[in-house]
């Protein structure tokens, strides 16, 4: 990536922050429709949660371009992306900007069926379910493709899906991602599920980067939605990396992370960015942000950076 393009991405983020703040913190708030879409997939049920501006009561309405959020390895889509506290709902924020937003819960997360048999909710397992979900969303919204925003382990799902089903993907955002194998070894888990705690839910937040009230609210919401979570994420990180083959990821791609990214190396993300073949790609680092910057003080800059990238989609 050239130095000029690095500066351009960061300058673009800065120029949009003021208008984003004004638009989200003042004036009358719009009405949102929220719908749960339970889909039968290969013997189980996978839930997709939708947040959009209220237009009418028709489920089959033709709507805005679609962005699909993919959660990380411990918590499901609603606490991650539609947290009902002040202005912290990422899905509401994107819906205000003209996007029809969905968040899908992998098996074992949220209200979706627990994985069984050979399915541990590894990224490859989720991609199989996700094709059915994306095709159904395209049918509901009369679109041919969606944009994907994957956070943490969800970025592995997003990239793998975009590699295998490029015809269904417009743009990809890899947020807090990891490409290359870890430098240390772990023992693979024997249990399919693990129990989570309030402290686990607070662990992604970097001191000084967040509102303490938010972290308490988020932790309670996360535990309520996901008292336990599948261990497929650890099988991916400990044994399956690299899942992403940059040469096969042809969609326009944004690689983005907080400055204090704790879970993954900024250097690893830079190497992934350089390996992507697309000429339409960006690498962005959000100053003062951690692994969960979309829920921290830097969320406005994160939102404006991601939205600016997604808004370059055809038809926007």
Automatic annotation (TrEMBL):
One Gene Ontology CC term in the entry: membrane
Gene3D superfamilies in the record: alpha/beta hydrolase
InterPro entries: AB_hydrolase_1, AB_hydrolase_fold, AB_hydrolase_sf, Hydrolase_4
Keyword set, alphabetical order: Aminopeptidase, Hydrolase, Protease
Catalytic activity, EC: 3.4.11.5
GO molecular function: aminopeptidase activity
Keyword Protease part of the UniProt annotation: yes
Pfam family, one: Hydrolase_4
Enzyme class, spelled out: hydrolase
Domain Serine aminopeptidase S33: 90-297
Keyword Protease tagged: yes
Stored PANTHER family: HYDROLASE, PUTATIVE (AFU_ORTHOLOGUE AFUA_2G14860)-RELATED, MONOACYLGLYCEROL LIPASE
Name of the protein in question: Proline iminopeptidase
Organism of origin: Saltatorellus ferox
Phylogenetic placement of the source organism: Bacteria, Pseudomonadati, Planctomycetota, Planctomycetia, Planctomycetia incertae sedis
């Amino acid at each position: 990536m050239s130095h000029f393009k690095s500066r351009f991405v960061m300058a673009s983020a800065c120029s949009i922050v003021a208008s984003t703040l004004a638009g989200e913190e003042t004036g009358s708030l719009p009405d949102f429709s929220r719908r749960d879409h339970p889909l039968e997939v290969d013997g189980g049920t996978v839930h997709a949660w939708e947040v959009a501006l209220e237009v009418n009561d028709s489920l089959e309405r033709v709507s805005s371009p679609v962005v699909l959020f993919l959660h990380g390895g411990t918590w499901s889509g609603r606490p991650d992306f539609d947290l009902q506290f002040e202005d912290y709902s990422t899905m509401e924020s994107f819906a205000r900007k003209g996007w029809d937003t969905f968040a899908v819960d992998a098996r074992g997360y949220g209200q979706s069926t627990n994985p069984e048999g050979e399915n541990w909710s590894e990224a490859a397992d989720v991609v199989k379910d996700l094709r059915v979900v994306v095709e159904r969303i395209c049918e509901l919204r009369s679109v041919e493709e969606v944009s994907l925003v994957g956070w943490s382990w969800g970025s592995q799902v997003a990239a793998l899906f975009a590699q295998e089903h490029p015809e269904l993907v417009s743009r990809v955002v890899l947020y807090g991602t990891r490409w290359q194998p870890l430098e240390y070894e772990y023992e693979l888990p024997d249990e399919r599920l693990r129990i989570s705690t309030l402290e686990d839910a607070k662990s992604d937040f970097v001191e000084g980067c967040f509102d303490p009230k938010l972290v308490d609210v988020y932790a309670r919401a996360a535990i309520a939605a996901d008292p336990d979570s599948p261990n497929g994420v650890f099988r991916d990180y400990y044994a399956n990396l690299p899942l992403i083959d940059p040469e096969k990821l042809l969609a326009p791609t944004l690689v983005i992370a907080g400055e204090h990214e704790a879970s993954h190396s900024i250097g690893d993300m830079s190497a992934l960015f350089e390996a992507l073949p697309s000429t339409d790609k960006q690498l962005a680092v959000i100053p003062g942000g951690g692994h969960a910057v979309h829920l921290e003080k830097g969320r406005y800059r994160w939102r404006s950076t991601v939205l600016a990238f997604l808004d370059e989609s055809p038809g926007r």
